[in-house]
Every structure is written in structure tokens, then in C-alpha cells.
């Protein structure tokens, strides 16, 4: 691959995106995806590629330090995994060829953008710093790739990290960004109430865990509505409940599974504590036992205000003020939050809603779609923003 112009690079990015979309792989299984990305980079003359124990690919595009004694490093994340969904887009020549697997969250475009950024910056002659491209596995499910990449130390020397995501809730040709907290932390839990079985006609002879679980669910929402500040967005949802073996037997064992969504670390810890406390209290009052298991997922993403300002300036110059959306915080999650915990971060969205092309469906839908030009718009803004951030941090006086 000989890249002599940005136009040629765009064609190569589109070709890579189509290949990734047609051959999606689930979290933890991104073997062919890694090979395709690695081959794309090798063919562009990039051979300093590291594959980490967690399955990530790392590319450092190095340049000399200037006006500083320390090399500034800016990271760009591309997530590689797909979802267990059957694609329903027969209009796309590059639709998934893998039954039951689909890029329904735009990770094919994120990886293609990151690969294009690696080639673009590798061809720059006056790059003042280091661009580290991270191709990350397993954003969608445990074990989360963002957590693993951070634990392997790849973000320890990072000055700033950039994440980009397709967004079907704003029109094609526009971009969006959120001030401060972008997403929520996503924790899950399982809770089992253990009681005593009895005949359904004599409930007082047993300990009814379905009744106890019902009481817990009702009281649970009081944690949000009565014990959490109104300006602290939080959600607790029960998605699964299981118990009982017959309609006339008092259930002695009921299991619940749910999710806790919070923003600030303080609220996250406090709500976790209160949910456990409520489970123990409800069980005790009714003479049952509770067994609570919490799994901490991805933390919230928090945008750095200075980087947001840089992004807004860059987006307005490149697209125009009318193409920029200042979005409200989301209660969804992304394991980019692990990077956000370690260094200053910028996470932004590029719009892909386009009724003319049938791209009107939400993320994780079997009909979700992204036009190539929308991806390229995200690519252009990613490299422009990275250049501006690198310039500003490199020229800033050392403290």
C-alpha cells in the first residue's frame, strides 16, 4: 500500500472498514480482526506493532520532543469487537458474513479510524510528540479490554487520550460532545434471598422469598428518589428475577440480577453500600438470609474541560458551529472509562443518522448502519483534534 495523499488513505480506510464489518468477531475472539489491522499497518510501512497479553495491538508513532524535556504522548482508542446479533441489512454489499455476529455498535469504524490515524501520523514529518494507537479487544463484555490495557501499563505515560464513537441520534455530518461526565459507571449484581419452604395454604409456616424480593424491589427505588441528590444522576434496574417451583409452594430461594448506573465515584460507592445494606435489612426483618455479589464494571467517562474546549474549537473550524451538538450526559457505558480514570480524556461522537440511506436505527440494532462518509468525517476530526491537542500540550510551559 503506497499512501501518497489523504484521498488515497481514505480509500484504504473504507476498504478496511468493509472487511472488518463483513467478518465480525465477538469479544475475546478478535483473531482475524487483529490480523487484518496488522496487515493494513504493515502494508503502510508500520512495523513497530506490539500485541499485548490481553490481545490489544499498540502502535507508537514517535517524533522528537520540542520545547520540552519530555515527550508528549496522545492516545487514540479503536475497539475491535462485535456483538452477538444477526445483521438485517441486505442493502449493504459488505454486510456481515458471519451468522449471529454483527458490528452493531460501530467498532468496525472505530478501528478503521484508529488505523487510518496510525498511517496518517506515521507519514507526518513534523509531528511534535508521540501518537499511541490502541486497538482494544472486548469493549462489549467481560473481561473488559480497557481494564486490561490500563493494567498492562499502556496509559501510565499518557498525557491525553481520545475516544470516538458513532452516534445514531444526531444527523450525518454533525458531531457531538458532552461536558464533564459523558457516560455512567456500569456495575452489576446478583442477590439471593434464602428462606424456608412451606405449603402455599400456610405461608406463615415458611419464609416467602418472593414476597421478600418484591419488598426489596419496591424499596430499592427509594435509594434513588429519596437518598440520592437530585443532581447526581443514577439508575438502579432489576433485569432478572427467578424463584419458585410450583404455584402452591412457598418459595424458599429467589435470585435477582440488576444493574447500577452512576456517574461520580463518590455516588457509585455510596449507592453500592446502600443496596447491600437494604438487602441485608429486608432479609433480616423477614427472617431470611441474603447473599449479595457485586461486579464492578466500567467506570464513567469524564471529559477534560480543556480538551473539550480544544475539540469544540477544532470542530467549529472544520465543520461550522451549526454542525456541533452539545449533548446531555448518557446513562450508557463504555470501557473507555478506564482510560479516563488514568489521564486527561476526550470522548466525542460523530453523527450517522441518515434516513435517505436507511440509517435510522439505534446502536445494538440488527439494522444499525453507518455511511462510509460519516466514518471519514469522524476520522478527519480525530486527527485534527489530536494534532491540536499535541501542539497545545507540547508548547505549554512545564510546571
From TrEMBL:
GO molecular function, one term: N-acetyldiaminopimelate deacetylase activity
GO BP, one annotated term: diaminopimelate biosynthetic process
Cofactor needs: Mn(2+)
Peptidase M20 dimerisation domain residues: 188-282
Domain of life: Bacteria
Positions bound to Mn(2+): 105, 107, 140, 165, 364
Keywords per UniProt: Hydrolase, Manganese, Metal-binding
InterPro entries the record matches: Amidohydrolase (IPR017439), Bact_exopeptidase_dim_dom (IPR036264), Peptidase_M20 (IPR002933), Peptidase_M20_dimer (IPR011650)
SUPFAM superfamilies linked to this entry: Bacterial exopeptidase dimerisation domain, Zn-dependent exopeptidases
Cofactor, how bound (note): The Mn(2+) ion enhances activity.
The name this protein goes by in its record: Amidohydrolase
Source organism: Franzmannia pantelleriensis
Source taxonomy: Bacteria, Pseudomonadati, Pseudomonadota, Gammaproteobacteria, Oceanospirillales
Amino acid at each position: 500500500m503506497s499512501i501518497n495523499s489523504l484521498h488515497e488513505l481514505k480509500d484504504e480506510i473504507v476498504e478496511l472498514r468493509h472487511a472488518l464489518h463483513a467478518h465480525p468477531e465477538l469479544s475475546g475472539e478478535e483473531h482475524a480482526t487483529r490480523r487484518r489491522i496488522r496487515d493494513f499497518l504493515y502494508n503502510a510501512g508500520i512495523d513497530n506493532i506490539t500485541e499485548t497479553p490481553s490481545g490489544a495491538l499498540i502502535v507508537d508513532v514517535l517524533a522528537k520532543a520540542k520545547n520540552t524535556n519530555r515527550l508528549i504522548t496522545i492516545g487514540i482508542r479503536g475497539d475491535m469487537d462485535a456483538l452477538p446479533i444477526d445483521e438485517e441489512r441486505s442493502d449493504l454489499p459488505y454486510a456481515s458474513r458471519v451468522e449471529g455476529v454483527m458490528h452493531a455498535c460501530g467498532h468496525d469504524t472505530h478501528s478503521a479510524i484508529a488505523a487510518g490515524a496510525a498511517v496518517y501520523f506515521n507519514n507526518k514529518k513534523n509531528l511534535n510528540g508521540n501518537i499511541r494507537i490502541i486497538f482494544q479487544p472486548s469493549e462489549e463484555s467481560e473481561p473488559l479490554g480497557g481494564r486490561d490495557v490500563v493494567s498492562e501499563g499502556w496509559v501510565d505515560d499518557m498525557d491525553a487520550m481520545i475516544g470516538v464513537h458513532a452516534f445514531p441520534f444526531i444527523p450525518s455530518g454533525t458531531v457531538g460532545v458532552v461536558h464533564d461526565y459523558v457516560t455512567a459507571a456500569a456495575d452489576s449484581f446478583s442477590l439471593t434471598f434464602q428462606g424456608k419452604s412451606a405449603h402455599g395454604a400456610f405461608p406463615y409456616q415458611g419464609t416467602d422469598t418472593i414476597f421478600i424480593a418484591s419488598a426489596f424491589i419496591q424499596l430499592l427505588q427509594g435509594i434513588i428518589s429519596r437518598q440520592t441528590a437530585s443532581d447526581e444522576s443514577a439508575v438502579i434496574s432489576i433485569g432478572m428475577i427467578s424463584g419458585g417451583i410450583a404455584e402452591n409452594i412457598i418459595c424458599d430461594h429467589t435470585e435477582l440480577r440488576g444493574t447500577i448506573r452512576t456517574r461520580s465515584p463518590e455516588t457509585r460507592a455510596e449507592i453500592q453500600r446502600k443496596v447491600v445494606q437494604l438487602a441485608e435489612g429486608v432479609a433480616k426483618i423477614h427472617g431470611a438470609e441474603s447473599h449479595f455479589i457485586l461486579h464492578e464494571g466500567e467506570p464513567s467517562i469524564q471529559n477534560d474541560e480543556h480538551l473539550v474546549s480544544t475539540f469544540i474549537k477544532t470542530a467549529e473550524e472544520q465543520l461550522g458551529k451549526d454542525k456541533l451538538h452539545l449533548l446531555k450526559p448518557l446513562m450508557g457505558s463504555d470501557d473507555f472509562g478506564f482510560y479516563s480514570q488514568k489521564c486527561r480524556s476526550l470522548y466525542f461522537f460523530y453523527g450517522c443518522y441518515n434516513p435517505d440511506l436507511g440509517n435510522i436505527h439505534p446502536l445494538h440494532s440488527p439494522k444499525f448502519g453507518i455511511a462510509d462518509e460519516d466514518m471519514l468525517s469522524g476520522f478527519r476530526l480525530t486527527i485534527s483534534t489530536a494534532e491540536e491537542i499535541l501542539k497545545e500540550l507540547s508548547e505549554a510551559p512545564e510546571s
